[in-house]
């Protein structure tokens, strides 16, 4: 059987299954008999015929059998009068196509309107009239139950969306009644693990209701929660004696007596006419050792009381609902996985920026009915010495395996950047991590590989207005300058992470100036990919759109506008991720940088330069003395153990003071508690005691030791 598109309606899916069941080019088996053919074993006539002229008006009909009661095919009336308004255009097109081509249109599931407003589900075939007559012959099968059961079972479950699965089931149930409803437990909607439920804890929500028409006030429609009393009543009715079974209430009096409360009657009974109802449970087997099955929900089939539910019909209903229950549980599990991955990705989304950088992001996950949430992730976080890291990545694959790798790579990148490594060095470590993941039980042995994942890391320094970027196979960032000019920040091409099959080269690091007011754009391929165009064209469209973002625009709203203009229309088959970073920079009056020669008097020179600046910043006396002592110790260590000139930088951020001393050496200072008579290492110990935190970061020319104090 050909796969059914996820966007197909439930009626399309059932029709597709019917088409596979019935040989092409022939009328349905039930149609080949004379009018009045009977459903095997039931003695019930299920076939009717309507003859149409070329204007699609009824010439005659044979709809006298009981299943067609209420369907008035009046000679001279338009055939479309028998159809729900929403189906008129489609059916008219099919009728005219058969007139023009004289090729039969066989076995299509269709709804007919009865005089009382209810609907009858039939299998409709459109045939050209036999010569010498002109026009059409429309054969209608009042959905032979076993045929419909086969078709429905084949069609339901083609979607992993819970709502679509429930809607498909409700549409199929219409073959047994006039109104069908599907109610699902809260745990199914939320994707929670299904466990054994006590009857008083079962809570139901209406998931699907057909046909689609105006309902009386107070009647429950899709999305409404059933009252607790109704949930307990329905769940209890289908779980009597711990055995799931269908329950039939044969008339309105029995229904009102069972419900007891007029409010429940208005909520559950569709209208004021006489009705009967069959309630069939959606159940799955409980965990091993569980005493009874688990209720996923309850279906309701309503019809006129003069047509009693026969035992054979109830068995068919139970068979169809039982098969659907498995699909519902699969959709629930998929929903749970989707929700878990989505929660992880949203935790990785950037938080609010700072006074030096403004951050806005948009993340649109793949639809639940697709292959699962993708592995896109984007993050931003502050780094020591007033810098900010921006990271975007795309992990290969979907689902929990991709989510686990995504979380590990994201957290590792943050830890390494916070420890002072540069973007290129971090990508080297991530490359090793991806290879390691692929060699462990978390990788191929579990059916998942992260090889080929991409990542781009940018670090922004608001004092120097510099950005350092390194890229591992990811799409290039965009930089929009304050004058509106835009460019892609393309580094030397490098394979994705874990690509050992190519010649390994160091990750290139690119550094450039970003004037205050510049906009840095990071994104994933889901935003710019278009099957009908090249990826370069997609990046070009993105460039043009982000150039329209003005410096005074609200950045979050601007990000949403960009995604709205560029993202593919739903359903999304890949995550869409965008990060906009407006680079404001640090005001010059809050910073100071000096480059000094590496001499014995450099520490004294640094103190002399810093002291008046600290007074202008109104640094407290004790804090100022501590800052001068820290500067002296850091400069002394740089002169003693480093090489080349020494760079001293002070940054004031509110009440916090950051002191940074850089040199061209590559040795890592280490804190150790020395012997009381040993002077080596005492300087860092003093720094450790006087500051809130300190550390080392690696630069293109060497290293820088930073320390933060409260001023």
Strand content: 25-35%
Q: What is the approximate shape?
A: elongated
Strand order of the largest sheet: 2-1-5-4-3
Q: Assign the structural class, choosing from mainly alpha, mainly beta, alpha/beta, alpha+beta, or little secondary structure.
A: alpha+beta
Attribute tags:
5-stranded antiparallel beta sheet; 25 strands; 711 residues; alpha+beta
Could you explain how this protein is built, in words?
With 711 residues, the protein is α+β, with helices and mostly antiparallel strands. It is 32% helix and 25% strand. The strands form five sheets. Strands 2-1-5-4-3 form a five-stranded antiparallel sheet. A hairpin with a 4-residue loop joins strand 24 and strand 25 (703-710). The longest helix has 38 residues, at 311-348. The chain is elongated. The N and C termini lie far apart (73 Å).
Quick rundown:
This protein has 16 helices and 25 strands. The chain has 711 residues and is an alpha+beta fold.
What's the layout of helices and strands?
Layout: H1 10-21, E1 47-52, E2 58-62, H2 88-101, E3 105-113, E4 119-128, E5 136-141, H3 145-155, H4 162-173, E6 179-185, H5 186-190, E7 204-210, H6 228-238, E8 247-249, H7 252-259, H8 262-268, E9 276-284, E10 294-303, H9 311-348, E11 357-364, E12 374-383, E13 387-398, H10 399-418, H11 423-439, E14 454-461, E15 466-472, E16 478-480, E17 486-488, E18 509-513, E19 518-523, H12 535-546, H13 555-566, E20 576-583, E21 591-596, H14 602-616, H15 621-641, E22 646-653, E23 656-663, H16 682-690, E24 693-698, E25 703-710
Antiparallel strand pairs: 1-2, 1-5, 3-4, 4-5, 6-7, 6-10, 8-9, 9-10, 11-20, 12-13, 13-14, 14-15, 15-18, 16-17, 16-19, 19-20, 21-22, 22-23, 23-25, 24-25
